[in-house]
Specification:
By secondary structure, the chain is mainly beta. The chain is about 15% helix and about 40% strand. It has a 28-stranded mixed β-sheet that branches. Strand 7 (about 215-220) and strand 8 (about 225-230) form a beta hairpin.
């Protein structure tokens, strides 16, 4: 091969690229003078730095010790708890009535093992032990009738002192107790000489077999003193019916310590008992049907209804509770505080999806008593129903300390206070408007002792109003005995009328 010198050879051999050439640093082209170790030396160095691998066990000794301890504990608990429970259950199954059946034939719903029974009757078997019980003693018992239903009637009397109950095992689930209904009516006895409480039970059954499955019992003593009704869960025939009509006649003048009702699927009506009958503790509970109270007076009254309305007139000194889930509340209330009361008179009205309409009068039995200043606490709450609350003082109660809380979400709220109210107010809604009204401007006819009705705002906007209302000059500090009103809503308007 012939290699030419000069430009001719350079043109053919050189690259046509004419850009900058990158030259490697001189240190790259230098050769390391350190020689690599041979194979044997490299293997020895590798074995020095490599730790020997330990073979892992799936389960070590501590795990097996824990398993053995757990088995020992399990066997001990089984012997200590499981065996006695089995023995007790077998004894109950073999001998459900150690002292003999209280009823002719006995019905399975009397068993305390029946978990479907409502809470007040879960331990009925134990509570009846040692108490006098009278069951299914009929004054009238039709076995045949030209009418479609057979009538059975039972009556009983109890002194009004102590505990009085009217309850049943029927639950609020109408699918389980299909074909069963009832009513309770509580009124004054027309016989003014009668000093005891008279119970009258009228039972209407489609067949004698249905009546025989039902237990109507009266108890003189114990936690179930009064009337207890046990109805079968299944009537045996889809067309079978069972109905109860219960009357409770009270003496024309009585003071009852405790009166309780628990009657799901029953309508409950209390008549015009007025001041003639005083209840220290009155509890009324229902579920699916309305509860109506004509005129009730007492210290503590509680009315609870799950799916139906509550309506009535109440005069309470200590505490009144009206509670429902989907039913409306419509009531006239007198909250009366006595000088010997150590805490405010309390009122609570609570429903979830229905309106509240309440006219409330604040009263006291000791106006002018030295050192006595009446105080009241009132709450009203719903979610999707109009609230209309009207609060005023009676003539003998010129002023009081009122704490009012109202809560709503999706419906209008209107609260009216009379001109005797003095104190702070805080009204707020998120996505609607707040309206404040004041109709009374002066007191005293313009004479020397006349006072002006003053509203002083701390904050005011379309969705909120906060401030003070009262007679004369506002005090820099909160004055003892003045009230406080708080109304909150989410998506609906609020109106506060300050009288």
């Amino acid at each position: 091969m012939i290699i030419l010198d000069g430009d001719h050879g350079r043109d053919k051999l050189d690259s046509p690229f004419v850009g900058q050439t990158i030259r490697l640093p001189d240190q790259v082209t230098l050769r390391s003078t350190t020689s690599l170790p041979d194979y044997d030396a490299s293997q020895q160095e590798h074995e020095v730095f490599q730790e020997p691998k330990k073979k892992k066990r799936r389960f070590d000794s501590s795990f097996w010790r824990a398993v053995v301890c757990a088995l020992v504990v399990y066997v001990a608990l089984t012997l200590a708890i499981g065996v006695p429970l089995l023995v007790v259950r077998k004894e109950k199954k073999d001998k459900p009535w150690p002292k003999g059946p209280p009823l002719g034939g006995g019905y399975s719903l009397w068993s305390s093992d029946d978990a479907t029974n409502p809470l007040p009757l879960q331990s009925l078997l134990e509570s009846l032990s040692g108490h006098a019980v009278r069951c299914n003693v009929w004054d009238i018992a039709e076995d045949f009738s030209s009418n479609p239903l057979l009538l059975s009637t039972s009556q009983y009397k109890l002194p009004p002192q102590g505990l009085i109950t009217v309850r049943s095992n029927i639950s609020y689930d109408s699918d389980i107790f299909s074909g069963i209904n009832g009513s309770l009516a509580v009124n004054l006895n027309q016989d003014k000489k009668e000093k005891n409480i008279l119970f009258i039970v009228n039972l209407l059954a489609s067949t004698k077999a249905v009546r025989d499955l039902t237990n109507v019992c009266f108890t003189d003593t114990g936690p179930n003193r009064g009337l207890t009704i046990y109805a079968p869960k299944e009537l045996g025939d889809p067309d079978a019916t069972l109905s109860f009509a219960v009357q409770v006649l009270l003496p024309v003048s009585a003071s009852i310590e405790t009166f309780k009702t628990y009657l799901p699927l029953f309508t409950q009506t209390f008549g015009e008992l007025g001041p003639q009958v005083w209840f220290d503790h009155l509890t009324i509970e229902g579920t699916n049907n309305f509860i109506s109270c004509g005129d009730l007076t007492g210290s503590q009254i509680s009315v609870k209804n799950a799916l139906a309305s509550i309506k009535g007139t109440f005069n309470v000194t200590d505490r009144l509770t009206l509670d429902t889930v989907r039913g409306a509340i419509s009531t006239n209330i007198i909250l009366t505080q006595t000088p010997n009361c150590l805490q405010p008179s309390f009122l609570s009205m609570d429903t979830g999806y229905s309106p509240i309409n309440a006219n409330i009068t604040l009263a006291t039995t000791g106006p002018g008593t030295p050192g006595f200043f009446p105080s009241f606490v009132t709450q009203a709450k719903t979610f999707n129903g109009d609230i209309n609350v009207d609060i005023s003082h009676d003539k003998q109660t010129p002023s009081s300390s009122l704490s009012l809380q109202v809560q709503n979400a999706l419906a209008d709220s209107t609260v009216r206070l009379d001109s005797n109210f003095e104190g702070m107010f805080n009204v707020q809604t998120k996505l609607d408007q707040v309206t404040i009204r004041n109709r009374t401007m002066s007191r005293g006819g313009g004479g020397p002792g006349a006072k002006e009705r003053v509203i002083s705002y701390d904050q005011r906007s379309p969705g909120r109003a906060m401030g003070w209302v009262g007679w004369g000059q506002r005090s820099p500090a909160r004055t003892f005995g003045q009230g406080h009103v708080e109304i909150v809503s989410s998506l609906s308007p609020i109106t506060l009328d300050l009288g």
